[in-house]
Structure formats: structure tokens, C-alpha cells
Amino acid sequence: MKLSKSPWLLHYDASSCNGCDIEVLAATTPRFDVERFGIINTGNPKHADILVITGGVNNQAKSVVKQIYSQMPEPKVVVAAGICACDGGIFKDCYNIMGGVDKVIPVDVYVPGCAVRPEALIDGVVKALAILDQKRDAMKSHAACEINYDKNSDTKEKNQA
Amino acid sequence: MRDFLWLIMIILYLGLAPVLGVLASGYDRVVTARMQGRQGPPFLQPYYDIMKLFQKEAIVVNWLQTAMVVSFLMFTIFTGCLFFAGGDILLVFFAHSLAEVLLILAACSANSPYSNLGAQREYIQMMAYEPMTLLVAIGFYLVCGSFNVADIIQINMPAIIKLPGFFIGYCFILIIKFRKSPFDLSTSHHAHQEMVKGLTQDISGNVLGIMELGELYENVLLVGILALFFITREPWTWLLAAVCCSVVYFLIILIDNIFPRVKWEVMFKYTWLVTFGFAGSNFLILMMLRR
């Protein structure tokens, strides 16, 4: 079964002007019924699969973003929503702005826009779902690789002996 | 032959309870969505959710929490087996309380304030509904003269005829047990939770999957106890029980959708009022009739 059938979403505002946040929240309201795709808006990073993050990340939000990301269990994906989250946007040159979420944590999908359009956001989340499945497969094959690696190291040692 | 039958019931419970639990939960989510004018998730969404959780990594805050959650599942399954094997209903309620306490200890063992607050509220919920569970056991004893489930299902007429107050009280605490609004204080299936995920805050990935599985077993057990109000020695009453349980389940979903969450004081007050108002007066009348 694919992970993408049950994506639980976490939304964090890392110093956004709130324009993108309003769009993100609006897209997850019952009116647009994202639950038909199994998406649940959870407030808990430990239950989340997708982190939707807005804003260019200022100094204060930096440690919070890192902590939230580290609290999410693997496999996980990050969607940078809005141009500020992508590269800092009009705040890029501010003294306190990191200039994009990818300066702090790895980002999988970039969704530009000021504010981000709901259609673009939904497209971005759908792209993220495909990446989520890929990451799950990679985790499985990675686990298999580790076993192979161990076997190889055994044979190497034997060869050396 | 009789022992053999109970063995079959245990195997059926072990195998079918998660299936029934997932179907009931899927029905709940689709009906809730339709009540809100939405299409809602696929019918098997709870199955997808649990399968996803089992594929995820668990961030374990301490080994004690995982041990407690696994013990919660074990004790819930044990309780269900005891019930469906026709065991003592008092023991069923006590073992069930122990399972619940293990879950609270799991939440207490984490450092997160949300988790601890969820655990505290779960204690308050237990304080609210425990008198009613004990009264249910006593009610069945007054009607049947036995605490054994095997004897209770052999009575002549449905227990609800003599125990209407107990039935109302039990339905009331089912709202708390199913974690439904207005009484979903400790944790909620919905996003409208002021302390994030409360009780389940620090339980993640496949450990959360184990907990969800435990809750499925628990829900089937609770509906089983509800069915006990209708089942007699006549086979057709099993059908009656199935229909009545479905109606009660639908009503709980309806209540979930039309009431906002209340504060714990209100929950506590109303639960005890209903417990002692309905079940208590029913109990007194039964005692007077026995004289």
C-alpha cells in the first residue's frame, strides 16, 4: 500500500506575511474537502508526513523550523509554499531573513506565488505525494543495501584474512 | 462442545475485530463528511491510515512509552477475548480499566506538556465514566443473577426492558469512550484540538499504529457490551442487537457533529448526573421490585 493514500499535513508559518497562510488554511477547510484524498491537517509534527511551510525563515524561526523537521518521522517531505519560502521573495535582502526554507532544512517541492495560488498549492502537494512514495521505496531499498553492505564487509574481512 | 464454541468466538474476535473496527470507522468518516456537505474520504481510509502508520518510522521518546502502548494493545485484546469467551463481565471492566491506565501511563512518561495534559484529562474522563461501567455490570447481575456473559445471553427477555436507565447511561459514556464531541477532551480525531493531539502527542509512526489497532479492538468490545442489552436465548435477537447497535452508533456520530466540545467540569457533571439520574433510579426501582 502506498503512503500517499494517507498523507497527514502540518502547516508552519516561518515569518510569512500571512498571505500564503490564509491560502494554505483556506485550501484545507471543509469547503475544499481535502479529506477526500485522505489528507488530514494535523497540528502535530510527530504525526505528520508533509510539512507545508511559508515565509522566508527569520532568525527566530530558524531553530523552530529545524526542530519541527527533526520531530517528523521518516519518510517525510517538505513543501515550500510561496515565493518567500522558495527564495526569500521581497524580503530576501533583509538582515534577519535566511532567504528561503532550503537554507535551513531540505525542501522537496517549491511552489512559487505571492500569495501562493490554491491550485498551485494542490499541485505542489500532489507532487510531494509522489516524492513521499519514492522516499518510502528508497528507505526499503536502503535497508536492503545496508544488509548487502554488511555482507560485503564480511566477505572483505574474510578476503583480507 | 460449549468450550469449543467459545474458542471459535475468541478466534473470530481476534480476526474480525480490526476489520469491523475499520469498517465502522470508515462509515463514521464518510457519514460525518456527508453531514457537513462534503464527499469525504474513501470508505477504507482508516485502513490506509493504519497501514501507513505501520510503514513509518517511530520516534521513540523513551522505551517505557512503547512498552506501555504495546501492553495497552495486549490488555485490550485480552479483555475482548474474555468478553467474547463469555467470561465475567466485572473482570472485563476491570481489565479494560487497566488497559486504559496503561495508555495514560504511556502519555505521562513523555516530557511534552500536551501529552501530560492529555493524560490528566483522560484520568478525569475515567473518573466520569467508571461508575457507569460498574453499574452496568451490577444491572446485568440484578436481571440475570450472574456476572457471566455466557449466562447473560441466555435470559428470556432483552435486558433493556428492565434496564432502560442503564442503557441510556451506557450510551452516554460511549460518547466519551469513542472520543467524540462534546467529550473528546483528552485527544481528538479532528483538528479542533486546543492541545494539539493531547494523549497521543508523543506517540508516533508504527507505535501510533499499535495504539490505533488497540482502539479498534476496544471499540468492538464496547459495541459488544452494548449488544448485551438486546441479546436473549432467541437467535433473532442477535439481529435486533446488530440493528440497535448501528442506530446508537449513528446517533453518536450525529451528536459528534452537532455539539461543540465542553469543558471537563461540564462533562464530569453531566456524566455523573446521567449516571445517577437514569442508571441510579433504574437500580433503585429494580431493588424495590426484588423485595
Structure summarized in a few sentences:
The complex is a heterodimer of chains A (161) and B (291). Chain A is an alpha/beta fold. Chain A has four helices and five strands, in the order βαββαβαβα.
How far apart the termini of chain A lie comes to 44 Å
Number of domains of chain A: 1
Oligomer: heterodimer
Radius of gyration of chain B, in Å, reads: 19 Å
Cα-atom radius of gyration of chain A: 19 Å
Strand content of chain A: 5-15%
Look at the helices and sheets of chain A and give the structural class. Answer: alpha/beta
Major interchain interface with per-chain residue totals? A-B, 23 and 30 residues
Low-confidence stretches of chain A: 147-161
User: What strand order characterises the main sheet of chain A?
Assistant: 2-1-3-4-5
Tell me the overall shape of chain B.
Answer: globular
Order of helices and strands of chain B: HHHHHHHHHH
CATH topology of chain A: Rossmann fold
- Helicity range of chain A: 40-55%
CATH class of chain A: Alpha Beta
What shape does the CA trace of chain A take? globular
Q: What is the CATH architecture annotation of chain A? A: 3-Layer(aba) Sandwich
Give me the number of helical elements of chain A: 4
Query: Which range does the strand content of chain B fall in?
Result: under 5%
Portion of residues within helices of chain B: over 70%
The tally of beta strands of chain B, per DSSP, is 0
Describe the protein's architecture and organization:
The complex is a heterodimer of chains A (161) and B (291). Chain A has 161 residues and is an alpha/beta fold. Chain A has a single domain, classed as Rossmann fold (3-Layer(aba) Sandwich), CATH 3.40.50. Chain A contains four helices and five strands; from the N terminus they run βαββαβαβα. Chain A has helices at residues 19-27, 59-71, 83-87, 118-160; strands spanning 8-13, 40-41, 50-54, 77-81, 109-111. In chain A, strands 2-1-3-4-5 form a five-stranded parallel beta sheet. The longest helix of chain A is centred in the C-terminal third of the chain and has 43 residues, at 118-160. Chain B is mainly α and 291 residues long. Chain B starts with a helix and ends with a helix.
